[in-house]
Amino acid sequence: MLANVAAAALCLAQLAHAAPQGGNPSSVSSSSSDASLTSVPAPTVTVSTVVASPTVSSDATLPSQIPDPPAQSWCTSQIFCAGPTVNVAGLYADPKTFVDKPTSASAQSVLANFKNLTNSSSSLTESQLVNFVDSKFGGEGTELEGLPIPDFNPSPSFLQNVTDPLVRAWSGVVHGYWTQLIRGTNQSALCSEGDAGPKCESTLIPLNHTFVVPGGRFREQYYWDSYWIVQGLIKSELFDLVNATLQNFMDELETIGFIPNGGRIYYLNRSQPPLFINMLADYVSATNDTAILDRALPLAERELTWWQDNRTVNVTSPFTNQTYAVARYAAANTAPRPESYLTVCLR
Ligand SMILES: *[C@@H]1O[C@H](CO)[C@@H](O)[C@H](O)[C@H]1NC(C)=O
Ligand SMILES: *[C@@H]1O[C@H](CO)[C@@H](O)[C@H](O)[C@H]1NC(C)=O
Ligand SMILES: *[C@@H]1O[C@H](CO)[C@@H](O)[C@H](O)[C@H]1NC(C)=O
Ligand SMILES: *[C@@H]1O[C@H](CO)[C@@H](O)[C@H](O)[C@H]1NC(C)=O
Ligand SMILES: *[C@@H]1O[C@H](CO)[C@@H](O)[C@H](O)[C@H]1NC(C)=O
Ligand SMILES: *[C@@H]1O[C@H](CO)[C@@H](O)[C@H](O)[C@H]1NC(C)=O
Ligand SMILES: *[C@@H]1O[C@H](CO)[C@@H](O)[C@H](O)[C@H]1NC(C)=O
Ligand SMILES: *[C@@H]1O[C@H](CO)[C@@H](O)[C@H](O)[C@H]1NC(C)=O
Ligand SMILES: *[C@@H]1O[C@H](CO)[C@@H](O)[C@H](O)[C@H]1NC(C)=O
Ligand SMILES: *[C@@H]1O[C@H](CO)[C@@H](O)[C@H](O)[C@H]1NC(C)=O
Ligand SMILES: CC(=O)N[C@H]1CO[C@H](CO)[C@@H](O)[C@@H]1O
User: Which residues form the signal peptide (predicted)?
Assistant: First the structure.
């Protein structure tokens, strides 16, 4: 079996939600003409197009194809959700790399090209697949852009309360990481409509407001990560970014009906701890912006209903015969997770 049984290191990285990349924020290039102490220019988001690094030789033939996992009604992309071929070939150390690459042509034509390639499936080699992916897919994360934080205050008041000078200096550095983690959707990089449908296909769920990413492979907005991000943003007095984060979640509640795990279609049947209402409460306490509640409260009710209807079971205690409503995680999914396909934690 050619499956790339990814190393435990990856599992650790997934758990740790990898630290922001980009190094020391004080070294952010100041190319922007109006750069000043309080206006930090947009970071250059390195859209690292990871180079394929298969663990087998390039002329190795792919394993005979295992049957496709059952198609999932909620994730209909034939390229990114169902097919195992690219994933079992283990082109990248992280299976998330492939599913975050938008196609460079219509889904229909990419699938036709692939079908053509696999006509002689017994001899399809690792290098043929690398060439195919390189020519038909773009860089992972290319639809996102780094954004500046207007009027970034490098010295918010919480820092004055940190008495130990070393801890204060370190807190200032951590505060500076915000400048590396602000993203927007690059609208002109999204797949546009052509005469015969979308000109390309991508797993990204585009968001209309600015957001903060956890960093590393987590290049989208995430649900419960945002709860912790909001705690920090409030300390850092970056209230507009909290508002924008909440606006994105409200958009998702309106358009999707619940808040998915993260901003990719392969997360559409998974949520995360439902902390929207806590983020909202923290934001309103910190800002007194009660105007947000007109839109937010009905949507918070909607989220609660979604959890009650889709994620709650009645459990009767065998000891007391009392029945309790228990909310739990669940996913209507019987296939491998596309972004963690065949990833096995060894420890
Ligand atoms: C399929 O392969 C043939 C032979 O190499 C080529 O002529 C044709 O253009 C290919 N079609 C597609 C859709 O890739
Ligand atoms: C590969 O198979 C497809 C679908 O059966 C067919 O349309 C195409 O012409 C074949 N290509 C080659 C190169 O044989
Ligand atoms: C700083 O400490 C004072 C005194 O404990 C407290 O009143 C104030 O809220 C603190 N400020 C911040 C920004 O945490
Ligand atoms: C946005 O996407 C367009 C089209 O791909 C590209 O030319 C432009 O450089 C992107 N902007 C940023 C800031 O990445
Ligand atoms: C929060 O964001 C919304 C949408 O962009 C905007 O209309 C509203 O004015 C913002 N609220 C504050 C207090 O800035
Ligand atoms: C973003 O705005 C566009 C255009 O107004 C809209 O069609 C789309 O549904 C919005 N996205 C979300 C997640 O609300
Ligand atoms: C919010 O409003 C209350 C009541 O007017 C006031 O006591 C409190 O200081 C305000 N908080 C902020 C953060 O402005
Ligand atoms: C989930 O809940 C919503 C609204 O509460 C309901 O309309 C929908 O049918 C439920 N979906 C499933 C798969 O149970
Ligand atoms: C749990 O019990 C309540 C009260 O009897 C009922 O309304 C609800 O539909 C039950 N929920 C489920 C998931 O069975
Ligand atoms: C729980 O209910 C069942 C059936 O109604 C009964 O047989 C059992 O004795 C009850 N147990 C307790 C602890 O009340
Ligand atoms: C149970 C569940 O989560 N169902 C959802 C699966 O995803 C589709 C598409 O987003 C939703 O409509 C379902 O409610």
Answer: 1-18
Ligand 1 neighbour 291 (Cβ under 6 A): no
Q: Is 305 in the pocket of ligand 8 (CB under 6 A)?
A: yes
Contact 286, 101 (CB under 8 A): no
CA angle 188, 190, 193 (to 5 degrees): 100
- Tell me, letter by letter, the H, E, C secondary structure of 176-226: HHHHHCEEEECHHHCCCEECCEECCCCCECCCCCCEECCECCECCCEHHHH
Ligand 3 contacts CB of residue 157 (under 6 A): yes
Q: What is the pLDDT of residues 295-340, one digit of tens each?
A: 999 999 999 999 999 999 999 999 999 999 999 988 888 888 888 8
User: Is-contact 215 20, C-beta < 8 A?
Assistant: yes
Nearest CA to 330 out of 263, 261, 279 is that of 261
Nearest ligand 3 atom to the CA of 160 is: 1
Q: Are 42 and 307 in contact (CB under 8 A)?
A: no
Measured at the CA of 148, the angle between CA 142 and CA 152, to 5 degrees, comes to 155
Tokens of 118: 């696999």
Distance, CA of 318 to CA of 322 (rounded, Å): 8
Contact predicate 340/1, CB 8 Å: no
Global pTM reads 0.84
Q: What's the CA-to-centroid distance between 306 and ligand 8, angstroms?
A: 6
Q: What is the pLDDT of residues 191-221, one digit of tens each?
A: 999 888 899 999 999 999 999 999 999 999 9
Ligand 3 centroid to residue 158 C-alpha, Å: 7
